[in-house]
Design goal:
Layout lengths: L1 E4 L5 E5 L1 H6 L4 E10 L4 E7 L17 E4 L6 H13 L7 E13 L2 E13 L16 E8 H8 L5 E9 L6 E10 L5 H5 L1 H14 L2
Parallel strand pairs: 3-7
Antiparallel strand pairs: 1-2, 3-4, 3-5, 4-8, 6-7, 8-9, 9-10
């Protein structure tokens, strides 16, 4: 169950997740981008189709971590839980980057009204050294992209870049690592181009990486 809010974030009542998206009800989520200062890299995920989706979702890359805040859960516990569930990360110290308002309708039966609590999460691990054995089975792969390459895509300077990718077997969660995979601009969710608040968050992470 999720806590439902009005557009000013005043709590109202609890509701089932599916109904929340069907009826475009406001709720809270946590979102995180994992970064590595040493390699100037960011980590994104791709996903296997979710049972909760009522539409065909293209094979986009998405934020490193993302998930609903349960009705009885605080925000900090939610980001730590999602980091463990989705990327098998523990002992992290997330940096809170602010709240993003997400208001979009991917499909008539799947509508998003979210208060996204957005975080930057530092790791010292290269993708090839990471283990995802306890990660969520919805995570299809993890992509490692250089900060400057991501910005070149978002600013439409380049139409493709080379990335590293760890593809995860859905059942065993064993990973197959490949470097120099071509990532094209159309694999980026359109919101990343259209919503300037996402670029602002990524630039904030760039500043964290340069400290």
């Amino acid at each position: 169950m999720l806590k439902v809010y009005d557009a000013k974030m005043v709590p109202l009542y609890n509701e089932d997740k599916k109904i929340v998206h069907q009826q475009a009800l406001w709720h809270k989520v946590v979102t995180g981008i994992v970064f590595n200062k040493q390699t100037n890299s960011l980590y994104f995920q791709t996903i296997y189709p979710k049972e909760s989706y009522t539409f065909d979702r293209l094979d986009y890359i998405d934020f490193s971590i993302g998930g609903h805040v349960e009705d009885d859960e605080n925000i900090n516990d939610a980001i730590l839980r999602e980091a463990k569930e989705e990327l098998d990360l523990s002992e992290i110290t997330p940096d809170f980057l602010g709240i993003r308002i997400c208001n979009c309708d991917p499909a008539p039966t799947y509508r998003i009204r979210e208060f996204q609590y957005f975080y930057g999460i530092e790791t010292t691990q290269d993708l090839k050294d990471m283990s995802f054995l306890h990660s969520d089975k919805e995570v299809k792969s993890v992509i490692e992209i250089k900060m400057n390459d991501l910005l070149d895509l978002l600013l439409k300077i380049k139409s493709s870049v080379l990335v590293n990718e760890m593809v995860l077997d859905r059942e065993t969660r064993q990973g197959t690592y490949t470097n120099n995979v071509t990532l094209t601009a159309d694999r980026i969710i359109p919101d990343y181009y259209d919503d300037k608040s996402i670029l602002e968050k990524i630039l904030t992470i760039k500043a964290l990486m340069e400290k």
